[in-house]
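anyone seen this seq b4? input:
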Amino acid sequence: MGKAERYKQAGVDLEKANLLVEIVRKYTQKLPQKGVISEIGGYAGFFSLDVFSYKEPVLVSSTDGVGTKIKIAIMANRHKGIGIDLVAMCVNDIITCGAKPLFFLDYLAFGKFNENVFEELIEGIVEGCKISQCALLGGETAEMPGMYKSDEYDCAGFIVGIVERNKIIDGSEISIEDVIIGIPSSGLHSNGFSLVRKICFEEQKFDLDYIPDELNKPLAEELLTPTKIYAPIMYHLMNKNLKIKACIHVTGGGFIDNIPRVLPKNCKAVIFKNSWEIPPIFQWLQNLGKISDEEMYHVFNCGIGFILIVGEEEKEDVISMISALGEKPIIIGKIEELKENESQVIFV
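predicted toks r here
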């Protein structure tokens, strides 16, 4: 019998696990290495912090996953976008406070190792890190027979960033009459997919190659569009020293749950529903699934993936700077005084 043959019979292939480390090493060579002082494959990753570039550096961290969008990737056998999603969901969270991502780590768990799936995921993770200008410091890949089916996997991501203490964006300076600017999403991003799957595959019995007239592309292509990473936009704004009072990643919970996370208790956000064109995928799902407007804004990003709150005097500069990057920012609302028994998010 070969080495660890009994373990292999139980469903865990240690030789293949070692091969996966080499795949990661191959891809991470393409990433920024400033600060990285360790190689992939060790017990831990080491990162040397450039403290001399900051007066009061504050580390910022977050963790997230991709959710049941993975089920669709498995159905379609398309996985690179999931890797991008994984980075995006973490990076988009920490940039809301003005942080610059430093390094990312991943956790990938398989029912049975699949080298091709793994390589696609790593390729996507590396692309996400490249867009975010951060290092891939390490990770964990587990083969877990009995926990997942042989073709199933799950993933989680972990990000660490840095921000100057006096430049933390936390919403505390929001005031009445501030302007709410929306930046378009790339599509559904990585939220609401349990409802998407119920509508498309349980109720409607669609195939992934089905092309709805409203979408003009196969369902798999639309649903698996990677989550947009907003870090380059934030870098641009921060480098110009523009005053951003709050940032909102329109993630799980949509507008209704995410906007209040940054609002002072005496403020409400008034969202102008007709100020942007909602992409066809959201309208198609709403009609097909008979979903109310309120639930759509509570579950999905409805075409706005990231939100900035700025003072009236800053709005033109902010819009101009974002537009210069080829983006299409939109004024989607304003801040008003919250009255008794009102919701902190109002749609008009």
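The first helix runs from residue 5 to 9. The domain at 5-164 is CATH 3.30.1330.10 (60s Ribosomal Protein L30; Chain: A;). kinda curious what u guys think
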